[in-house]
Amino acid sequence: MTAARSVLVLTHTFDPTADYVVAELNRREVPVFRCDVADFPESMSVGAELSGAAWSGQLRTAQRALDLDDVAGIYYRRPTAFDLHSEMSEPERNWAASQARLGFGGLLAAVEPWLNHPHQIGLAEYKPVQLRAAARCGLRVPRTLVTNDPKQARRFVEELGDVVSKPFTSRGVSDAEGYRVPYACKVTAEQCDNENIARTMHMFQQWVPKHYEVRLTVVDDEFFAARIDAATAEAAEDWRTDYAALSYSVIETPNFVRSRARSLLDLLGLRFGALDFVVTPAGDWSFLECNPNGQWAWIEDETSMPIAAALADALEGRGKTLDRQ
């Protein structure tokens, strides 16, 4: 019997979502090499040689090694930055970080297949890119304005009436008051007179009447749709504000949504995506966003949909769409 090939998991030391995939691979007795980008170069060494059209070599820690030509799949979650030697000067650290990014990062970029490749994740995280791609694929996308012009923002709100302001990133702000996360919220025309709008880019989007929302997790050709119902007004605007007010149920993905969502991921070069939709009282599915490296473990907990198993299948090479790489 042929030994199972290894799966490389690149993530932070503490990542409960990645733990689900690692546990599933361990249950299948698939070798897993889990590490953080921050492990290089202090806790991990690398040596590789170009042999023909492929790189052959190893990633090595004090405990184990991974042969690069034995990799079945790479799961890229949320690794942290290179942890360089503390005795280096700032100019030395900057130079060494560039060397590490182009050398270590470049080596891994040449190994495949990824789920998802970090370069594709970076592209898909641009909201203007993914919204345009979704529209090109035939998905219904709300009217959207990106601007730092308060007057243009006010005109947009006055024209449409119900508008929400949305952050481009899920990252919060840390200050003397603690850590705060920006959420989507409805805005009035008067609020658009705030001069702070001019200080950075903002996104305004037409409000879509909600019957319920859907988190659609896609892994290759596997679709896992969770209906999300919100019991409070705050959760109805942005369900991240009040998880306790949410209820979940498993639903079918309509064929037209399935085909267009898969086209969207293909266009963005993604094998995995966490897509958010609003379903209107009339039953129309309206696309909000695609997170190319989104959370999904809590959806599996709430619905028992086998997302971790689908990811393990894809990383083992059992998926049906590896030719998209």
Q: Could you characterize the architecture of this molecule?
A:
It is built from nine helices and 18 strands. It has 325 residues and is α+β, with helices and mostly antiparallel strands. The strands form five sheets. A five-stranded antiparallel sheet has the order 16-15-14-17-18, sandwiched between helices. The chain has a four-stranded parallel sheet with strand order 2-1-6-7, with helices on one face. α1 links the parallel β1 and β2. The longest helix is centred in the N-terminal third of the chain and has 20 residues, at 90-109.
Count of DSSP H/I helices: 9
Task: Give the H and E element order.
Answer: EHEEEEEHEHHEHEEEEEEEHEHEEHH
Termini Cα gap:
28 Å
Question: What would the principal axes of the Cα set say about the shape?
Answer: globular
> Strand order of the main beta sheet, please?
16-15-14-17-18
Number of strands: 18
Global structural class: alpha+beta
Radius of gyration in whole Å, from Cα?
22 Å
Largest sheet: 5 strands, antiparallel
Mean pLDDT: 93
% residues in beta strands: 25-35%
